[in-house]
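Hi R.,

As promised on Friday, here is the backbone we talked about, encoded as structure tokens. Could you run it through your design pipeline when you get a chance and send me back a sequence?
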């Protein structure tokens, strides 16, 4: 028995076969990706257009660009709130990770140096400097156990004490979780 439902994008009636129930498909009218429900019935059948992988990748890139723009707007908004005109975040008094603060031997980095490198990682992520963030991740992974412990402590504390960028806590915690997952 064919399934009849409305496209969630253009609201046109679509007919699909029972075999397509519970899957994702493309609306033949607006080409929007839509879910084909399992239990609704109807008459007649309009086959769904198969998903286009190239179009899906384009949509994913577009979503990533949108996220980057939203991050920039959040930073600009936070800067506008600071009456002194200074950036919305301040650096913590820790050595720079680009110096020899996170050593190549791994176990030589102090918790303070690792904390500084984590703060630099978050700043790099919040500004979209993924190359710098990747370098910091590699440096931090040399002392995985200590880095993971510092990240866990940071996630359980007030993150504003670290002088992190003025971003919503869920975004900051998301950056920390992402870094923690690579340890």
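Update: got your reply. Pasting your designed sequence below so it's all in one thread:
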């Amino acid at each position: 028995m064919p399934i009849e439902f409305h496209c969630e994008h253009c609201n046109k009636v679509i007919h699909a076969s029972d075999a397509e129930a519970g899957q994702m498909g493309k609306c033949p009218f607006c080409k929007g990706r839509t879910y084909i429900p399992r239990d609704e019935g109807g008459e007649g059948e309009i086959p769904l257009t198969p998903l286009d992988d190239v179009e899906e990748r384009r949509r994913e890139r577009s979503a990533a660009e949108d996220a980057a723009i939203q991050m920039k707007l959040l930073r600009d908004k936070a800067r506008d709130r600071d009456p002194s005109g200074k950036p919305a975040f301040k650096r913590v008094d820790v050595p720079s990770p680009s110096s020899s603060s996170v050593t190549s031997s791994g176990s030589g980095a102090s918790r303070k140096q690792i904390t500084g490198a984590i703060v630099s990682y978050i700043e790099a992520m919040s500004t979209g400097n993924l190359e710098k963030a990747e370098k910091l991740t590699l440096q931090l992974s040399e002392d995985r156990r200590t880095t993971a412990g510092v990240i866990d402590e940071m996630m359980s504390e007030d993150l504003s004490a670290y002088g992190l960028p003025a971003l919503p806590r869920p975004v900051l915690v998301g950056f920390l979780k992402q870094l923690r997952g690579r340890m």
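One thing I noticed while checking it: Residues 3-51 form one domain.

Thanks again,
M.
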